[in-house]
Design a protein that fits this description.
heterodimer, A: alpha/beta, four-stranded antiparallel beta sheet, 12 helices, 11 strands, about 35% helix, B: alpha/beta, Elongation Factor Tu (Ef-tu), domain 3, Rossmann fold, 2 domains, seven-stranded mixed beta sheet, six-stranded antiparallel beta sheet, 6 helices, 15 strands
Chain lengths: ~350, ~280
């Protein structure tokens, strides 16, 4: 992998050039003390040393609402796609791991042209974490750092950013005038930063190792923790909405006011919501919040891992930050590990 | 930056025309359809399609007919939700959208040579009928054919002409019951499990094929297991909410199974230890 360095002062002029060059650049902006990914109007708005964003950048490839089919009478077609490219600037490693997982989900079996089209048009510029969210536990999930899945990856070293070039797409947007080859000291510092990155998350640690999670969960389908979650969880689905690896969706139709036509669109859905499994007869297949929570944690810790050989949870901690009942995956996994039931 | 080539959407339905509609009961109708493209649907018994009416929505519906040479297929539909109620307002000549067929149907090859024990509860007859009719068309390929059918009341009996036909055939053993009879009903009264004591089977060569409402499975499974049919020779078709039919949207999941892909037909051995399944 090609490795470069650039001065920290070069970031803003670089973003200025990209914006002036007609790219749509998404960056992290600060609002009322919280951070979110959104379109940059000015280079100076971009923040790189944030803790975590409210939503993951998933929303740019898998939008909360996306038209699937537009229809008029009985004639239907796929909506016309935009062909503009997007640069997402400042994505943390755990979110890159989540995007890599979603790439597999939407590529596997029946390919999803909507996601894959947006993904193809997206260039990801990552940045390593310098101050994690208090609820994050990425080191436990093996997602504190990243080696693939980015087009460019920035790591803060003294006075500079160490830049790894992950793809041709990344190479194309490099500020060629200002990047240099790293010297030995800079390389050493980069490796030191990578090595210490997991320790930044170490205060919030899942005790069982990621590879043991599927078997641990399998053995503990009837652990008392699920009944505790029945009492605590409000069934609001906020965890689903902020999760970077949740991709379940509902499909709905919407008519024009004159009833001449309309669109069929998909919209994010959540397995913690009671209606998620309701069929027309009224039957609900996961009635209790205990079962809905178990499904969610099994999906993250077992089903996705078995199918894709990657954890379905990347340890970003967003679900905990947004949960009114302060349900924390770290506590759930640790409760099971500490008191196994057969 | 290049435009990405437009790919065909898996969400675009094919147009299908309703050839005829037959009333089965007060709440169920049978739609006979053909795809406007002339394509044969190419389904196997037990598969389903996503039916759509633009502006109303889309939903999974079991295919009720066996694979046919004339490119037509049948959907038995209960008016239960928004989509199915709107379907009941359609007439012959109207069009609707079809995606599919989807899922795993009954394993026809595996079933050949076996005695078939069909257990159909109410509207469960609709998906099972595709395999029942298939087995009757290829009668010599199978051993005994036993059909147990239970309806809540005489007026909720589906496909009454076919029930009469199965009842009169010498190569089919047909038993039915209703939960509650009425003045005109002369047949068995009681839940479907009461029919099991009237039959004897050879469990070594019997395949049990069970489709009914969720509550029926528990009791019907006890009965077929009491008759010592092995778990891997018991097939069931499970209903779930489905939106995409492509193994993505998540609604149909039973543990790690996507019912729209790995199901809707499962063996009891596959789902026995999955407690959300039944």
């Amino acid at each position: 992998m090609k490795e470069l360095v650039m001065s920290r002062d070069a970031i803003v002029p670089w973003l200025d050039d990209l914006l002036a060059g007609g790219y749509e650049v998404i960056g992290v902006k600060k609002h009322h003390g919280k951070y979110r990914f959104e379109k940059l109007d000015k280079a100076g708005e971009a923040v790189l040393n944030y803790d975590v964003t409210l939503q993951s950048p998933k929303k740019f490839m898998f939008p909360p609402r996306e038209d699937l089919v537009s229809f008029s009478g009985t004639a239907a077609r796929m909506p016309v796609r935009e062909d503009k490219g997007l640069i997402i600037f400042g994505v943390h490693p755990y979110d890159i791991h989540a995007i890599t997982l979603l790439d597999e989900v939407f590529r596997e079996g029946q390919q999803d042209p909507y996601y894959l089209d947006r993904r193809e048009r997206t260039t990801i510029v990552g940045v390593d974490v310098t101050r994690p969210s208090v609820n994050a536990f990425s080191s436990s999930m093996g997602t504190a750092t990243v080696d693939t899945g980015f087009d460019l990856m920035l790591t803060a070293i003294e006075g500079s950013y160490f830049v790894r070039v992950g793809s041709e797409k990344g190479s194309r947007i490099l500020p060629t005038q200002v990047v240099r080859k790293p010297n030995d000291a800079q390389r050493a510092q980069f490796h030191k930063e990578q090595d210490r990155a997991p320790a930044l998350f170490a205060l919030n640690k899942v005790i069982p190792s990621v590879k043991d999670l599927p078997m641990l969960l399998e053995k503990n389908q009837h652990h008392p923790v699920w009944e505790e979650l029945e009492k605590r969880c409000l069934g609001c689905g906020s965890c689903n909405l902020v999760c970077p690896t949740c991709y379940c969706f509902d499909v709905k139709d919407e008519m024009e006011l004159d009833l001449s036509g309309g669109v069929r669109y998909r919209t994010w859905d959540g397995c913690l919501l009671k209606d998620f499994t309701r069929v027309a007869s009224g039957e609900v297949f996961r009635e209790s919040r205990a079962h809905r929570n178990r499904h969610r944690f099994f999906r993250k810790g077992k089903y996705m891992m078995e199918k894709y050989n990657k954890p379905g949870c990347v340890g970003c901690g967003r679900c905990t930050s947004h949960c009114l009942a302060e349900i924390n995956p770290v506590e759930v996994f640790n409760a099971i590990a500490q008191k196994e039931v057969q | 930056m290049q435009a990405v080539e437009q790919v065909k959407s898996p969400y675009l339905p094919e147009k299908a025309t309703i050839k005829s509609i037959a009333s089965l009961t007060e709440t169920e109708r049978l739609f006979t359809l053909t795809l406007d493209s002339g394509r044969n649907l190419g389904h196997t018994p037990g598969q389903f399609v996503e039916v759509s009416l633009f502006g109303i929505g889309e939903g999974p519906i079991s295919i009720s007919s066996p694979p046919a040479d004339d490119n037509s297929f049948e959907l038995g539909v209960r008016a239960a939700g928004n989509l199915t109620r709107a379907m009941h307002k359609l007439a012959a000549g109207d069009t609707l959208g079809i995606r599919g067929p989807f899922g795993n149907g009954f394993p026809v090859e595996t079933l050949m040579g076996k005695d078939l024990l069909f257990v159909a509860g109410g509207i469960g007859l609709v998906p099972l009928r595709s395999l029942i009719k298939y087995s009757l068309t290829h009668r010599d390929a199978f051993g005994r054919i036993l059909i147990l059918f239970g309806a809540r009341s005489p007026k909720e009996r589906l496909f009454t002409d076919e029930l009469a036909d199965w009842s009169s055939r010498t190569d089919v053993e047909f038993l039915e019951t209703v939960d509650r009879g009425d003045e005109s009903w002369k047949g068995n009264v009681g839940v479907i499990t009461t029919l099991f004591k009237k039959i004897s089977i050879d469990p070594r060569r019997t395949a049990a094929l069970i489709v009914g409402p969720p509550v029926m499975y528990k009791y019907a499974l006890l009965e077929v297991q009491a008759k010592e049919v092995p778990k891997q020779n018991i097939w069931l078709s499970l209903e779930r909410r489905m939106k995409c039919g492509l193994g993505k949207c998540g609604h149909c999941q039973i543990n790690n199974y996507y019912v729209c892909q790995e199901g809707p037909v499962f063996t009891f051995a596959q789902i026995e230890d999955r407690e959300e399944a039944l």
